[in-house]
């Protein structure tokens, strides 16, 4: 089980304190406008808050269980994210065996490697061995219709929803001097900055947004929201330097990289949804859509953060 020290307790208390305040505000708003016909925004806000409660409680349980709990949690997240991704991409009956390998063999192996802290194989298993195996298996099925498109979509799904996401719990394997047994805080730092960046960009966009940053792709994302959300997230990351092995300015730089990569990840996932003609990848999380809607930023942020930390701090 993870040893919850004072710093970790303080961090978790802050997270749940914010949730309590948000719940109170959401409840007051719902009571204040309960007589009005249109309060969809408030209903959506409260649904999102309930979703955050659920996700935070699950994360705390995983933290208490220890590193294995965190690995299992992210493996489950990858499973649902890959399922949502594959649902939106065209596959054929001949692809079913390749998909079986992805869901029930390759994905578990990837997370077992993370749990074993086998960096040498974890870092190449999917981008090399799985990458080569999948088209070979699909070719043996003899179905040539849209072969390149189908193979690329399954490969990209594995890279984004499994390989990239697995870098988040892989932070627990890093051997950082003078930071022994504290890596769970590094994982929380990544998750907080990534998720709050999404929230803050949304808030700044609603309050001040005028100019869409990519109007044909995501008209709700604005230049003002992007700039305000990124700057606020960097300041947040700097304020949390005490739970990381970074100095305050290093935490700020790391936060900047995390938020920029998260923004790019969100844009790429939005492009997939727009191409598929859907608003959300799914509906598994109340108020948030699908699993992939919630972790789209993490897909791009986690690998970069992991390798920067590993290169400069281990």
Tell me about this structure.
This protein is mainly α and 314 residues long. Helices cover 73% and strands 3% of the residues. It folds into two domains: 1-65; 66-313, no CATH class. It has a two-stranded antiparallel ribbon with strand order 1-2. β1 (212-214) and β2 form a beta hairpin. α8 packs antiparallel against α9 (223-239) and α9 packs antiparallel against α10. The longest helix is centred in the last third of the chain and has 29 residues, at 248-276. The radius of gyration is 20 Å and the shape is globular. The model has no long low-confidence stretch (mean pLDDT 88).
Based on secondary structure, the structural category is mainly alpha
* Major sheet: arrangement of strands: 1-2
The N- to C-terminal Cα distance equals: 24 Å
- How would you name the oligomeric state of the polypeptide chains in this document? single chain
Number of separate structural domains = 2
Strand content: under 5%
Low-confidence stretches: none
What is the C-alpha radius of gyration, as a whole number of Å? Answer: 20 Å
How helical, in percent, are the residues?
over 70%
């Amino acid at each position: 089980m993870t040893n919850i020290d004072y710093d970790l307790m303080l961090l978790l208390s802050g997270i749940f304190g914010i949730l309590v305040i948000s719940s109170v505000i959401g409840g007051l708003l719902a009571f204040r406008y309960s007589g009005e016909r249109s309060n969809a925004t408030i209903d959506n806000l409260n649904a999102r808050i309930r979703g955050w409660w659920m996700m935070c409680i699950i994360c705390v349980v995983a933290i208490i269980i220890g590193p294995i709990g965190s690995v299992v949690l992210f493996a489950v997240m990858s499973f649902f994210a890959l399922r949502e991704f594959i649902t939106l991409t065209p596959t054929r009956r001949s692809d079913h065996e390749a998909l079986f390998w992805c869901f029930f063999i390759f994905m578990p192996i990837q997370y077992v490697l993370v749990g074993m802290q086998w960096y040498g194989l974890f870092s190449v298993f999917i981008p090399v061995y799985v990458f080569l195996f999948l088209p070979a298996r699909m070719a043996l099925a003899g179905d040539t219709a849209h072969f390149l498109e189908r193979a690329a979509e399954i490969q990209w799904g594995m890279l984004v929803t499994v390989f990239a996401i697995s870098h988040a719990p892989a932070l627990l394997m890093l051997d950082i001097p003078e930071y022994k047994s504290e890596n769970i805080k590094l994982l929380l730092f990544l998750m907080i900055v990534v998720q709050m960046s999404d929230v803050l960009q949304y808030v700044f966009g609603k309050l001040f947004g005028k100019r869409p940053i990519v109007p044909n792709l995501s008209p709700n994302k604005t230049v003002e929201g992007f700039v305000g959300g990124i700057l606020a997230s960097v300041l947040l990351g700097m304020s949390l330097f005490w739970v990381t092995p970074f100095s305050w300015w290093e935490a700020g730089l790391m936060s900047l990289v995390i938020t920029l990569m998260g923004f790019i990840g969100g844009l790429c996932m939005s492009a997939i949804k727009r191409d598929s003609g859907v608003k959300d990848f799914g509906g598994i999380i109340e108020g948030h859509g699908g699993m992939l809607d919630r972790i789209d930023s993490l897909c791009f942020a986690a690998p970069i953060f992991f390798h920067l930390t590993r290169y400069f701090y281990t």
